[in-house]
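User: SNARE associated Golgi protein, Isoptericola variabilis:
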Amino acid sequence: MGDLLDVPGELTAAAGEAGVFTIAGVPYWVVYLAAFGIVLVRAQATYWAGRGVARGTARTRLAERLSSPRAVAWVERVHRWGPPAVTLSFFTVGIQTVVNLAAGYLRMPYPRYLAALLVGCAAWAAIWTTVGTAAVNGAVALAARSPLTLAVLGAGLVASLAWAAVRARRRREALRDA
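Assistant: Predicted structure for SNARE associated Golgi protein:
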């Protein structure tokens, strides 16, 4: 099969030396543990920030609303069914922070939260150390061969995301006006 990335210089990764799931020759397990540690610290900080906000807002109207029978029933549901939501949030982009903050704010029992968090962090780290490093290595290899192609692909991606965002906003506005 030869070289996995057949480009000149230090970007060449021969099969056996390094693989597509390495960053600058750092082994997969090191990248995985680093990603796991980063997401674990970030998610924990968000959870504890939510707990702090809950404590700081204990004597506000929001706290009074959360003590109504209906709200208490919802909070109990979050405590019971929230852990799967915590785990599944790690398969999304942009929802993790909200879910972890809400888990802290609603005082999800820490042992349940931690169990769900560890599973979610393991999944997140696996996804980003495989798909993420492959994408980074692919982009580096493409940049070495054809920086213009990489720039065009990047601009196309940004344009596609902007188009999707504008379209979603217009749909929301149309639904609101209808």
